[in-house]
Amino acid sequence: MLHFDLEPIGFERLQHELGASDRQVRLAFNRALNRTVSRLRMLSSKGLQSELGLRRAAAMRRRLKSIRVRGAGGMTEARLWYGLNDLPVSEFKGRARRTAQGASFQGGPVRGDFPGAFVAKPGGAGRRTIFSRVKAARLPISEETLAIKDKADTFVEDQVFDQLEDILWREFRRDLEARTLYSVGG
Q: Does the pLDDT at position 2 exceed 80?
């Protein structure tokens, strides 16, 4: 988990510069934090879709959760949770092919070989994907999965969380200026 601390000196300086009350600062920070988390979720889902070569962004959106916790003094703490378990082969752009040893998946940045597996259409319709037998018998079968954790971790740390502080300060400053200008939450 990545942890970020913000300097309270920056909050106090901006508060005195704009003539804002403590309540306005607290309200502006909470709103800026909510907007920042929402923006980071959007950047993560869109960015991971292209980085991993996923067919739909919904595959990642379902795995991104934001958690808000009310902290001491009315300030809110936010956490982003990424579900980076392996994804089924059918979620990726690319082609499943039969090989002499089983099956392979090629396309985009994620690739994989699956010995003893076979290529078929799920339920007789849709795109071809890779299945393997759970037991020695003909049924049951399960769809093969590809690991995404390493690529996703690298992308999130390098591309998404680098923007966290800039987004938060921009949202905080904009909201606090509006609150002081229009005397909201004073």
A: no
Task: Report the relative pairing of strands 145-146 and 87-88 from DSSP bridges.
Answer: antiparallel
b vs e for 53-85, b when ≥16 Cβ sit within 10 Å of the residue's Cβ?
Answer: bbeebebbbebbeeeeeeeeeeebebebebebe
Whether the pLDDT of residue 4 is over 70: the answer is no
Beta carbons within 8 Å of 67's beta carbon, 6+ residues apart: 78, 79, 80, 81
Structure confidence at residue 5 (pLDDT): 62
Q: Is 114 exposed, middle or buried (0-12, 13-18, 19+ CB in 10 A)?
A: buried
* Interatomic CA distance for residues 3 and 11, integer angstroms: 19
pLDDT tens across 44-94, in order? Answer: 999 999 999 999 999 999 999 988 777 666 667 888 899 999 999 999 999
| 105 within 8 A of 111, measured Cβ to Cβ | yes
Cis? peptide before 140, omega within 30° of 0: yes
DSSP state of 54: B
Whether 185 and 20 have beta carbons less than 8 Å apart is answered as no
